[in-house]
Structures are given as structure tokens and as C-alpha cells.
Amino acid sequence: MSSPTDQTAEPEPPSLSPGQRIAPSLTEPLVAAASKPIGGPLGEHAAVGRHWFWTPQRVGLALATLALVLCWLGKASCIQQYTDSGGQNQLDWRAGRPYVAMCYSDIVPLYSAEQLDKSGTFPYRTSWIDGAGTANEQVRYMEYPVLTGLFQWVNAKLTSAWVTVSNAGWLPGALPVAVYFNITAFWLSVAWLVTVWAVGRTANRRPWDAVLAALSPLVMVHAFTNFDTLATAFAATGLLAWARRKPVLAGVLLGLGAAAKLYPLLLLGPLLILCMRAGKFRYWARTAGAATAVWLAVNLPIAFTLNAGWREFFRLNTVRGMDPDSLYNVISYFTGWTGFDGPLQPGQTPTWLNVVVGGLFLVCCAGIAYVGLAAPVRPRLAQLCFLVVAAFLVTNKVWSPQYSLWLVPLAVLAIPRWRLLFGWMLIDAAVWVPRMFYYLGVDHKGLPEDWFLGFVVVRDLAVVGLCVLVIREIYRPALDKIRLSGDDDPAGGVLDRARDVFTVKPRPRAVAVQ
């Protein structure tokens, strides 16, 4: 008699020869069930790889395009316009529209807030005054890393050119901010398509896993919430370059990603640990050196010529307090403890909070390094990368909703379990609903803070649960779907099937003498 566990267990992958594709309809219950309307799982005599056009890669890109279209439709409510009493067209954000319609995007308000709507401005040189005439008056500059700041500026210039041509009757017209949003969304879409492409290529024998990234609910909600798909594209292509044994190119791409959003630099940590274990340190040095050189090449011209503006990103991250959806705010709200520096005035630095954040992240990194060096079998690169980025998000004082996009390509490569990953992504994307109604305010029929924070806790627990699963599969490789199918580390590059030269052996327990 079978146990309930046996009845719900995922099917074992079929025996495959090296290089043979893995069909998710044969290994994933979710895909097997979804395939029933079109004939069921892949048959024994199916002609795999013979269609002249519809390869797994192109199917993934087509599905990603559909998801991006759905995301644009969701955000489009926030670029609608109306005519005011003076006959002028205005952006329709009346009656809390961004929150009620759940279409909020940072791209829209930043167009004017970062002075991108004005001619003659340049990021990191142009400044403005926040709180003018008050005790909290501050000089402000572009608050994003250099590559993202320049990305916004280029899109603003394209917007200006579009509006000029549309005024001449050659192109459709709209409010400049709407044009700016659409141009930005186009390039962010290209970046996510590159991410999906890179994930499919890195997955090697599991190209269909790219569909997990393509149809991610997080993409449908957050692809255009901010500019994070730029960084995911550089990070994913950096991992692909490493998988193809091109360490210098990998460093170049990770360096560009760090110039857009610092998180791709975190991937150098897992690479270091695994290269130490496999005796491949020189390859890591090439990657780290190229990443550093590229980051400096992008940043130094701005840092030397426009230093005050360049430092704004680092200054704001230092003085920024805990965000509403951070672990620290959850603790503070439900316990009433104000030990994380309490309420801050503008410009004040939350020193104690910064120390706690940095300390917890370093402790997590030390634990992940130990796992990487002490596990019985060398972990896969994607597994350690996922753990490091997840630890950064959980311990950080800021977890903006679009940051969850960072985890999507890493999770697909680290834990290719379709039902599990779609469940996590649905939970994470669903946090957007209580977030928007929390920002709407209770006075406007929004949700109280405890409802929002409850969803935040569920999201954090889901990510922690994924981390536990990854660690479990590291210590029990027979449970790892990648290794169960005969592969070692498809993203490992020079690490793939490499022999260990340095490990840390756990200290044996003392045996009591009777």
C-alpha cells in the first residue's frame, strides 16, 4: 500500500543519454497536467528538435513577450490623461488611481522628479532642492547608479525627439511622460527577453525551464515597476558567459550589471568559493578583474567630474531607513521595539540599523561559504548564487518589490521545480495588492499596515523555504533534479565536473567512552 507521500511525489526523470533534452511534461506534474488539452506528455516517438521554427528558446521568448504585454497593460492605467478645467492635458493620478488600479510605476514620477522632463539637464550634474524653505532642505541629484541614470537620460532624450516629431504630425502624440514610459518599457522588455534567452541557454539540457522565467507572475507585475530588468539581463548573460568558459566576458557583463544595480557583484562571492574548492582561482581572478575594470571605466568619469552627483546613490543608501516591507519594520511594528534607530530626520544616518544589516548579511555569507566548502559534493554555481542574493534581500533594510526579479533567473537555474517556483512567484507577486492598498491609506478605504506586513512575512518565509530546499539538495545531491538527470553543473563552466582540491571537513563529533 502506497503512502500519501508516494502518491504526491514528483515523477522521476527518464533515463537520458548525454546531450538529450529533458522534457518537463515527463518530469513535472504541473506541466504534465497542463499538457493534457494538447495531447498529454511527450510521447516515446515524438520528433523532438525537428520543428523548423518553434524551438524551446523561441517558445520561451514568445511567452515572455506575452507576459510583458500583460505587464504593460497593467501599468497602462497610470499613463492615462484627462483635460483639466483650463483645457490642458494632465496625467490622471486623481483619487489614488496608481494604488486603486495597482498600476504604480517608479518610471512615471521619476521623469519629473529626476528633472528628466527639462531640457539641458544631465544626470549627476543637475541638482534640485527638496524641502526648500524648511529645516529639512536638501540638495538632491540623480539617485541611481551610473548606467541606470544614463539609461533614464537617453530615454528622456528619445522622448523629446519623439514629441518633436509627433508635434509635426509624423508620429502619434501623447503626454511626454507617457511617451517616456513607453520608450523605457520597450528597452526593459528587451532586457527581460535577453534574461530569458540567457537562462534557456545556461540551462543546457533543460531549455524549457526558461518558461519559468518567461511566464513568471513577478514579471507580469514588476517588469516595469523600476529599471531592474537591466541588471537581470547583465547578471544572466554573465552567468551564461561563465558557463561557456569565457571568464573575462563574464566579468565584463557582471561589471556592467553592477554599474546598473550593484547586486550582480554579489555573484562574485559564490564564484570565489567554488573556484577555491576546485582550484580554479585564476579563472575567478580574471572574472573579478574584468568586472572591477568595467565598473571603474563606467563610474570613474562621472566620479571625477561630477563627484557630488555620483555620490548621491551611496549617500542615500547610507541614510535610508528601513522600508515598510523590510524584516526590521515587521519586527518593529509587531513588537513595538524602536531599537533600529527609531524615527529619523531627513539626512540622519541609521547607524545601528546599518550595522545590524551588514552584520547579518556577513554572517549569512559566512554560512554559505562554509556550505560551499564543506558540502559532500561541490554545490552548483546557481545554488550558491541564489542563496547569496536571497540572503541579501531577507537581511537588507530595503526590499523594493521589483527586487524579487533578481531571484527569478537564479531560482530557475537552482531549483527547476515548476510547481514550487510558480507557487513562490505567485505569493511574491501577490504582495503587490496589499502594498498598494496600504499606500492608499485607511482613510481612503485602504488596508491597515498589519495586513500588508502579514503578506510580507509570508513572502519572506517562502524565500527562506526555498533556501532551505537548496541547502537540503546541496547536502543530498540525489534530490537535485539537475544531478539526478546525470549533469554536474551546467552553469559551472570550468567548474563543471572539476575535482576538489580544497574542502573544509566538519569536525567529527567526540564519542563518549563508556
Automatic annotation (TrEMBL):
It is a multi-pass membrane protein. GO terms for cellular component: plasma membrane. InterPro entries: GT87, UCP010361. It comes from the Bacteria. The chain crosses the membrane at residues 177-199, 211-242, 248-275, 287-306, 351-375, 420-439, 451-471. Belongs to the glycosyltransferase 87 family. Coiled coil: none annotated. Keywords: Cell membrane, Membrane, Transferase, Transmembrane, Transmembrane helix. The keyword Electron transport does not apply. Pfam families: GT87. It is found in: Cell membrane. GO terms for molecular function: hexosyltransferase activity. This is DUF2029 domain-containing protein. The keyword Membrane applies. Residues 1-22 are annotated as: Disordered.
